[in-house]
Every structure is written in structure tokens, then in C-alpha cells.
Design goal:
80% helix, mainly alpha
């Protein structure tokens, strides 16, 4: 029951449209299914680390306002940098194979991991879920978080799969526009993150 409850919570997180959503979308549209999947794997591994951190004694550090600001600053700069990169994207022919670096699996995995990990809002969500499960037994809590993580990965996998299908019907100029929109959104998220924790 706890696993199913957690899985439904994970599926429900599809409504959160954050920077990782646009990273998933742009990576898949530009480079294909496998790079998008590596971003999704990086995101879920980052979430696993967040759960472990929140469960094992580092919640006071995450709650401390100064540490939140520095995490937000690093995360904001990373998002702004990615946004600028996407704003500079040239027209891409969906039929043309994109040349990927030799170790692109690691590169896309790392990008997904850190874009998610340096976002303090992600920690806030997990801290809330940790507090939600305080009255659950150890096994029930483990099942709940396992279900939640699986639910999140399910939604991310579906985003990657659907983006790949959409790509087949998108013209180069539309694809370029999508990348530029993603770039603007990432820059806005980055600035919002920094300003939110600066004035908090």
C-alpha cells in the first residue's frame, strides 16, 4: 500500500514544470532518445541522493538559509549558463544525425544530475515528503520512497519518449524556436532561484 501511495505521489509530480523538464525536452529533441534517457537517469539518481541526505541528518543544513542561498546561487548560474547555450542554438534538421561526443552518456547523465541536485526547491519537496512519512515504519517509509522515485522516473521516461515522437513532426525553424523558449525559461528559473533565496 505504501509503495502504491508513493508511486501515485511520484506520478503526480508531473505537474511540476521545472528546469529539468526543459532540460529533458531540449536534450531529447536535439540529440535523440538515448541522451534524453541519460538525463532522466541523472535526475533520478540525484533524487535518490536527495532522499538519502534528507533522511540521514542533513536536513538542518538544507534548512539553513545561508546554505540555501549558496546552493541557489550555484544552481542559478548553472541554469543561466544552460539557458544562454540554448538561446544560441542554430537551426537543426530533425533528419540529420547529431554528432555526439565520445563520452556523451556521462555528459548528459551529469547534466541531469546537477541541474536537479543544485535546485533547493527539489530539497524542499523531499524534506516535505520525509516529514510526511515520519509516522511510517522503516519498511513502509522505504516502500513509499521507492514508489515515489519509480513514479518520477516513469513520468520522466514518458517525457523523453513523447519528445522523440514529437520531433518527427517538427520543422527546423520550430525546433530552433523551442530551444530558444527553453533557453529563456532556464534563465528565468535561474534568476528566480537566486533572487528568491537572496531576499528570503
Amino acid at each position: 500500500m505504501s509503495f502504491l501511495e508513493g508511486y501515485l505521489v511520484g506520478l503526480g509530480m508531473i505537474i511540476f514544470i521545472g528546469p529539468v523538464f526543459f532540460l529533458l525536452l531540449s536534450s531529447t529533441l536535439k540529440c535523440g532518445f538515448t541522451p534524453g534517457l541519460m538525463v532522466a537517469l541523472g535526475i533520478i539518481c540525484s533524487d535518490i541522493v536527495c532522499v538519502l541526505i534528507c533522511n540521514y541528518g542533513l536536513v538542518p543544513f538544507i534548512n539553513y538559509s545561508d546554505s540555501n542561498f549558496w546552493i541557489a546561487l550555484v544552481g542559478g548560474i548553472l541554469l543561466i549558463g544552460l539557458g544562454i547555450k540554448y538561446l544560441q542554438a542554430k537551426k537543426i534538421d530533425p533528419e540529420k544525425k547529431v554528432e555526439l561526443p565520445h563520452h556523451y552518456h556521462i555528459a548528459f547523465f551529469t547534466k541531469g544530475f546537477f541541474v536537479n541536485f543544485v535546485n533547493p526547491f527539489v530539497f524542499m519537496v523531499w524534506i516535505g515528503l520525509v516529514k510526511f512519512t515520519e509516522r511510517k515504519t522503516g519498511l513502509d517509509s522505504t516502500l513509499f520512497f521507492s514508489g515515489t522515485l519509480l513514479g518520477i522516473f516513469t513520468t520522466d521516461f514518458l517525457k523523453v519518449a513523447l519528445a522523440k515522437r514529437i520531433k518527427d513532426f517538427i520543422k527546423p525553424n520550430i525546433l530552433q524556436l523551442i530551444f530558444r523558449i527553453c533557453g529563456v525559461v532556464l534563465i528565468v528559473f535561474g534568476l528566480r532561484m537566486i533572487l528568491y533565496f537572496y531576499f528570503k
